[in-house]
Design goal:
Length: 145
Amino acid sequence: MNPELQRRHQHDQSVFHRLLERHDAIQRTVTHIDGGLRSVTTSRDPEVVRLLHDHVPAMHRRLQEGFRLRRWDPLYVAIFDQRHRVSMDIELRADGVVVEETSDDAEVVELIRAHGRAVDGFVARGQAAAVRPSPMPGEATEISS
Ligand code: HEM
């Protein structure tokens, strides 16, 4: 990996590790819209808001570039494989971030919604959720900790 990409990856990693550590300070609601989801992810803590403002645009950019991460997680492999069929609209708000993520392809819509549930798991359980592969569409989501 070239040094610039390596530097970006290290930065992105430090941001999502910190988000996982601070998962208790994050609120999140997801609603299904035509072709995907709308998520509202917020915090009352300014540090966490700054992390969200960094993380979500950075992940959008990585998706556009095909700059993968979690290569061992089949859900993330699938979303990056389908990245040309994913649209993401991001609104940064004072208390967090609102995302609309959609696709014209029905199978990609299911991947987007499965990813939305994966983020729900990160918010609910932090690192304990992040060390496991994310449930694929149709797979049960864990409810216990
Ligand atoms: C508490 C921890 C985390 C929070 C609050 C969070 C938040 C978000 C949000 C709000 C989105 C936009 C999509 C959506 O709302 O469903 C997103 C997308 C994304 N996140 Fe995170 N995230 C967390 C952890 C992680 C981790 C651990 C990784 C990877 C190691 C990661 C990688 C990504 C990627 C690749 C995307 C873009 C892919 C897509 O949305 O389809 N996130 N994240």
